Amino acid sequence: MIRQLRFRRTIAALTLAVAGAAVAAPTAQADEDGRVPQLLFYNHAYDVLDRQTADAVEHSAYLREFANFEVRTTTGGGITWTGRYLKGRETYLELFGVGDLPGSDGLFGAAGTALSSERAGDLAKVRQRLQNQGITPVDYRQTRDFGDGVPVPWFDTVRAAPAYQAFDGWAMEYLPEYFADPRSGTEPAATPDDVSRERYLPDGYQDHLMRDIAAIRIGVTPEDLAITVPLLTAGGFKVVTLADGSVIASGGGTTIRYDAVPREQAGLKQVVFTLNRSVPRHVEQIGQSNLVVGPGSTAVWTFTGTA
User: Fold this and answer.
1) Other CB atoms within 10 Å distance of the CB of residue 203
2) What is the pLDDT of residues 94-144, one digit of tens each?
3) Rounded to whole angstroms, what are the CA distances from 119 to 10, 21, 32, 124, 145?
4) Shortest CA distance to 281 belongs to which of 295, 263, 260?
5) Which terminus in the chain has less CB density within 10 A, N or C?
6) Cβ atoms of residues 148 and 212 within 8 Å
7) Is-contact 23 241, C-beta < 8 A?
8) What is the secondary structure of 179-232 as a DSSP string?
9) d(Cα 122, Cα 95) in Å, to the nearest integer?
10) Distance CA 193, CA 208 (A)
C-alpha cells in the first residue's frame, strides 16, 4: 500500500492533448550547482476497486502469467491488510476491493501514491523543501510485523497535510533495519546509501511480462490534489497543471496524471506498463477492467468499474 489508515487516509494514453493553457508549478529550490535534483520517484499506487473487479483480479490466471503477482496479508503499525500486488523491477501496483479496508478508506475510488527516495537521507531533503514552501510536514514511521509480534522499522514517511478526503499521497524512505532483516527478502546494497526500489523489490519480474509502470492515471478531488502537488514539487517532479485543474507529474521513468474530479469519480483510471519483451496483441477482460497487452512491449490496463 502501504497506507497508514490512522491518517484518514504507452504514456501518451495518460498525457492526452488538452485544450487550453497548461501552467507549470513552482519547482523546488535549486541546489548550489543550480540544478534541482529529483529526490523522489514513483514507488507504487494503490486503489480500492469495485468488488467484482477486485475478485476477478485476485483469481485471474492470466495476471499470474503477466506479472509477478501476489495476494498478501501484511501487519504493520497495529493494522492488518490484504492486497493484490503486481510487482515490477522498481515499481508496483496494490489493489483492494470495496470493504477490504475499514471506514472511508474502504470505499470505491479511495487511492494513493507513494513516492520514495533512492538514497538514504534524501527524504530529509524533501522535508526541508516542504518547509521552504511554508508547509509543516507530517511525519510517520511505518513498522512491519513478520509474525512474531515484534515490529521491525520498515520506512519513514512524510506528508504535506495530516488528513485527506479519498487520496493519500506520501513520500517515503526504506530503513536500514528492514533491509537487514533476512525475512524482508531484499537485496544487498549496491552503495552505502542504497535504499532503492530495485533493492526492495524481488527479481521475480524477470520471469513474467510486466517490467515496470511507465504511466498511471488517477482521479483525485481538487482538495486532495492541492495537498499532493507540494509533495510532487518537493520531490523534484516536473509538474504541469492543466486548464481543468488536472496535474501531470513527470520524471524518473514514470508519468503520473491526476485528474481533478468530484469524489464520486475518484480512483484509478489507467495504468501503462513496460514489458520485458515484445508480444502480439492480447486482450484480457478482468471484471470491469480491460487489459490490452501489446502489440509490442507495452500494455495498457483501463478501469471502468463503478461501486
Assistant:
1) 11
2) 999 999 988 899 999 999 999 999 999 999 999 999 999 999 999 999 999
3) 28, 36, 19, 11, 24
4) 295
5) C
6) no
7) yes
8) HHSGGG-PPPPSSTTB--HHHHS-GGGGGSSEEEEEEEEEEE-HHHHHHHHHHH
9) 28
10) 29
